[in-house]
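User: I'm putting together notes for a lab meeting next week and I want to include a structural view of one of the chains we've been expressing. I don't have a solved structure, so I'd like a prediction I can at least talk through. The sequence is below, exactly as it appears in our construct file.
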Amino acid sequence: MIEKKTSRGTVNGTCDTKFNGVLDAFVENFDKRGEIGAAVAITLDGKTVVDLWGGQKSDGGPAWERDTICIVYSCTKGASAFCAHMAADRGLLDLDAKVSKYWPAFATNGKEDALVSMMMDHSVGVPGLREELKPGAYYDYPYMVERLAAETPFWKPGTRNGYHGVTSAWTVGEMVHRSTRTRMGKYLAQEITGPLGAEFWMGLPEEHESKVALIIAAPMDASMATSRIALAMAADPMGPTGRFLLNGGGFNANAREARAAEIGSATGVSNGRGLATLYAPLANGGSLNGKRYVGTDTLTRMGTVSVATHEDATLMIPTRFSLGFMKSMDNRKLENAANCSAILSEAAFGHVGAGGSIGFADPPARMSFGYAMNQMGQGIMLNDRGQSLVDAAYQSLGYKSDKGGVWA
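Assistant: Thanks for the context. Below is the predicted structure for the 408-residue chain, given as structure tokens.
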């Protein structure tokens, strides 16, 4: 059992000596990079090789423990995509069909020809809602479904992509709900996280509330006001970026209502171990411990780029997505885009969360990875804390360089 002292308390857990670089980076995050509380885990060939946690549940508060959990924001989208692909693998959901096959009410106001795949790769055109949302809107699933069905898209579905930062909870969510006849949070628990024993919830039961570490907002910085996403929001509050960021019905990630709600884009609750466990079968051919989750063809589609753009209509940076998952994105040389990269291998797929959390699978490496923290960082993708852990993981496996935009 590892016990390493840091400026924020003790780092505990286990770490295969092959991955000592990950342990070193994790300790340095507390001592040099402003980490407060966090957990990181890695599986290789389906076996846990790194399981570390440390720091504090709040600034100056109690220790982050083995079972501490927190909101992982958009890492939740990876769980949603897993559900949708599993439904497709079982023949319940056709990713190439029109949305109207499952959700007739959505096929209005220019969305008549939208495809299920467009729901998943952020090209369906409804990254936000124009009309002001009621207080607590995100906690009211039927209300959001009704509002999105009636919305006019910001662009013709399929003609470009713009990150559906929150609304994918109900676009992808309804594809799972209507094809499986089960709400996505329940489907995830029954079919994926339950069998895996993964500490990941899309709708946190109240009995787990004592384990929660509240999220700490990123420290303010002058550069935030000149970032591409901030400038786009200020220039057009009624555009895709503005509606995504400004029209949230008073959403509060630290509220019990947020953690209890099924918001499949934003309020999954987990830790490093939970995220790594979620992705473990996807790193091992679609099966784990004798249970098949998805087949080879489905797994291939999960990792294949569906859309790539020089300017995402919402995030205002180049982005790359498969159906429901982020791919490696290298924007390190882009002006006004600090912390807008997530450097993985070309084969890897997963999802980052606001503030810098991440979970992903790398099938050729047979590795799954998870990192969660309470202190948010600036930027849209990974900051130096999460990226340092990802870098150390790849270096531990013998990967040599990320200068080409992916670890190779």
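A couple of points you could mention at the meeting. Residues 355 and 376 are 4 Å apart (CA to CA). DSSP finds twelve helices and 14 strands in the chain.

User: Perfect, that's what I needed.
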